[in-house]
What we know:
By secondary structure, the chain is an alpha+beta fold. It has four helices and seven strands; from the N terminus they run H-E-E-E-E-H-E-E-H-H-E. It has helices at residues 6-14, 60-67, 101-113, 116-120, and strands at residues 18-23, 29-34, 37-38, 42-47, 70-77, 86-99, 126-141. The longest helix has 13 residues, at 101-113.
Amino acid sequence: MPSIPASVAGFISAGRVGHLGTADASGRPLVVPICYAFDGAALFSAVDAKPKSEAPERLRRIRNIRANKKVSVVIDHYDEDWARLRHVLIQGDAEVLTGGVEFSRGADLLLEKYPQYRSMGLSRDTGVMIKVTAAQVQEWRYSK
Length: 144
């Protein structure tokens, strides 16, 4: 786990939406928006109860992670004043959690950050969750 400066960790934690990039075993990419929580070392993102085209275990992002654990996550801030543009790129390894201590920790963080999960019945015990452990973190900010 790389050392992440406090200002970058704060930006990651405060973000509301990230974009998860995965690839299958053949390298075919997929990018999806995610809600996430950050504990300072890893990101957690639940496959929640919003309508899906597949059962959680059959979603392409889950199948991709099972075939190829290397992922990227982009968290960005857009502003019409381009001097305020900023993004963080996290590259690392993902794993699929379906229960256990790490799953419960991720669920607690998500329930704290997103009140919407309370009404959706996000479980602390079982479900499908993605955990991303950072190997590299890069920040970009507009500068003249």
